[in-house]
């Protein structure tokens, strides 16, 4: 554990300067985090969800999304057919981590199949089950949580054909266990997460500056591809293509779909524009998702107009209302309704569409609204809030701007952490509009 802490301290220092770790050091961080999760988090999750055996089955290039998060750092895919078995003995406080595969599954999971002794992989899996005689066997299938539905039909049918009848009644969906594995963040991961969001903020800040945007020349599409190139140059990846859009006095306010698919491309960014982006990165197997706003200064302006500054305050107020309603055990639909009702009672026009964030961008866990489901989301919105989870606090409020004779939409998104001490933003949030260009002080006569 001391090695992990030391490595994280080095990581913390390096990332603040956007000095991304080389691949070898990244691999060490990933494998150490996995070791901590397997040995300390997984036993608790299995106890909480009532499973003493969890079986994950995948084939190369067709990986179960949960198993993919367990891959050793030097494995980019599963190999052949990979079967993982986790067996939890609560009385002895032990957890076995076995791979019914020809190879050790990295340093954390050992191979439990000698093909020379037992040529049939399925028969070896059944031997492992019979030797431990579990009371409850979890498999990854789910109607409503896509990430937890990774067991394919052919592997399921093959497994069931070999499984003795006395064990078939013990098979259950591992949905709750899989969600717990995907959504729960450890202390060491949260140290890293702060740095990831910091990098994301820094890239947005540079994108929304005179280094990238020249009013009257640069287009929204130019900025989107600059962000992609910046991510690649840093040795990082993004889990979705960035989007950049503008709102201005001469434009009508589109519907919510405007932000996703109906934006006009190559809009030239002009003085007086309110510019918005949606951007996230992937690094060390975690994801970020941020939306921020910038204002393009007109000649002789030194700050954004008061009506835009006040509109951002309305957006921040919706954030405060929303996150103040978080409580462990509440469903996403409860938090959504309470927040929308409170916002409307204050004269705001909010929309909330917050999603779990972490190992995946649109991750598994509590869904708190969708842009087209403001009355609640069936099933995933009924899932309760758990501690040690991260969310993309994604929402907007519609504000009427008399000076522009139109409505605008203040769209914001920041990573937020829910834990035993309550809610906090992982790396702060936007409370002031970014200025394009930045104000410079000139000296002399």
Indicate the topology.
Blueprint: H1 2-16, H2 23-49, E1 53-59, H3 65-68, E2 81-89, E3 94-100, E4 110-111, H4 121-132, E5 137-139, H5 153-162, H6 165-168, E6 171-173, H7 175-183, H8 187-207, H9 220-233, E7 243-247, E8 274-279, E9 282-283, E10 286-287, E11 290-296, H10 306-324, H11 332-345, E12 350-352, E13 355-356, E14 389-401, E15 406-419, E16 422-425, E17 434-436
Parallel strand pairs: 1-5, 3-4, 5-6, 11-17
Antiparallel strand pairs: 1-2, 2-3, 7-8, 8-11, 9-10, 12-14, 13-14, 14-15, 15-16
Helix pairs in contact: 1-8, 2-7, 10-11
Structure characterization notes:
- With 445 residues, the protein is α+β, with helices and mostly antiparallel strands.
- The protein folds into 2 domains: 2-181, 3-Layer(aba) Sandwich (Creatine Amidinohydrolase, Chain A, domain 1); 186-436, Creatinase/methionine aminopeptidase superfamily (Creatine Amidinohydrolase), CATH 3.90.230.
- 33% of the residues lie in helices and 21% in strands.
- It has 11 helices and 17 strands.
- Strands 4-3-2-1-5-6 form a 6-stranded mixed β-sheet, with helices on both faces. Strands 12, 13, 14, 15 and 16 form a 5-stranded antiparallel β-sheet that branches.
- A hairpin with a 2-residue loop joins strand 9 (282-283) and strand 10.
- Helix 1 (2-16) runs parallel beside helix 8 (187-207).
- The radius of gyration is 24 Å and the shape is elongated.
- Mean pLDDT is 91; it is low at 1-17.
* CATH H-level superfamily title of the largest domain: Creatinase/methionine aminopeptidase superfamily
Radius of gyration: 24 Å
How many angstroms separate the termini?
A: 60 Å
Query: Would you report the number of β strands?
Result: 17
Assigned CATH class of the largest domain: Alpha Beta
Q: Number of DSSP helices? A: 11
**Major sheet size, sense and barrel closure:** 6 strands, mixed
Q: Give the fraction of residues assigned to helices.
A: 25-40%
Principal-axes shape call: elongated
Write the H/E string, N to C. HHEHEEEHEHHEHHHEEEEEHHEEEEEE
Mean pLDDT: 91
Name the strands of the widest sheet in spatial order. Answer: 4-3-2-1-5-6
- Low-pLDDT segments, ≥5 res: 1-17
CATH architecture of the largest domain: Alpha-Beta Complex
Number of domains: 2
Enter the CATH topology name of the largest domain.
Answer: Creatine Amidinohydrolase
Label the structural class.
alpha+beta
């Amino acid at each position: 554990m001391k090695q992990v802490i030391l490595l994280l301290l080095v990581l913390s220092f390096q990332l603040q300067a956007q000095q991304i770790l080389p691949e070898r050091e990244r691999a060490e961080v990933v494998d150490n985090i996995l070791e901590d999760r397997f040995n300390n988090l997984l036993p608790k999750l299995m106890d909480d969800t009532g499973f003493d055996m969890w079986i994950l089955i995948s084939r190369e290039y067709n990986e179960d999304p949960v198993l993919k998060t367990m891959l050793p750092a030097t494995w980019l895919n599963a190999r052949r057919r990979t079967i993982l078995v986790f067996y939890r003995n609560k009385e002895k406080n032990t957890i076995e981590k076995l791979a019914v595969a020809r190879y050790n599954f990295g340093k954390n999971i050992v191979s439990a199949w000698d093909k020379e002794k037992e040529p049939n992989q399925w028969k070896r899996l059944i031997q492992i089950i019979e030797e431990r005689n579990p009371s409850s066997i979890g498999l990854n299938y789910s109607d409503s949580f896509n990430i937890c539905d990774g067991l394919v039909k052919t592997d399921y049918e093959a497994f069931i054909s070999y499984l003795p009848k006395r064990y078939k009644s013990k098979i259950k969906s591992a949905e709750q266990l899989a969600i717990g594995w995907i959504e729960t963040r450890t202390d060491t991961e949260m140290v890293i997460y702060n740095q990831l969001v910091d990098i994301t903020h820094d890239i947005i800040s540079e994108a929304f500056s005179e280094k990238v945007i020249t009013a009257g020349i640069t287009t929204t599409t130019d900025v989107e591809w600059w962000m992609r190139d910046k991510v690649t140059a840093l040795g990082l990846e993004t889990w979705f293509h960035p989007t950049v859009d503008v709102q201005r006095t001469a434009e009508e306010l589109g519907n919510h779909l405007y932000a996703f698919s109906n934006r006009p491309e190559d809009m030239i960014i002009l003085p007086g524009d309110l510019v918005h982006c949606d951007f996230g990165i992937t690094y060390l197997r975690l994801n970020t998702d941020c939306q921020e706003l910038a204002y393009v200064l007109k000649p002789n302006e030194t700050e954004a107009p008061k009506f835009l500054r006040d509109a951002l305050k309305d957006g921040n107020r919706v954030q405060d209302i929303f996150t103040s309603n978080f409580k462990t055990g509440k469903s996403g639909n409860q938090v959504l309704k309470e927040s929308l009702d409170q916002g409307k009672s204050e004269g705001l026009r909010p929309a909330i569409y917050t999603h779990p964030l972490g190992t995946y961008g649109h991750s598994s866990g509590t869904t708190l609204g969708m842009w087209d489901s403001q009355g609640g989301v069936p099933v995933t919105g009924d899932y309760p809030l758990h501690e040690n989870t991260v969310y993309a606090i994604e929402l907007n409020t519609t504000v009427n701007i008399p000076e522009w004779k139109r409505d605008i939409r203040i769209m914001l998104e920041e990573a937020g952490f829910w834990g035993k001490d309550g809610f906090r933003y992982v790396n702060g949030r936007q409370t002031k509009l970014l200025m394009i260009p930045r104000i410079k002080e000139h000296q002399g006569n």
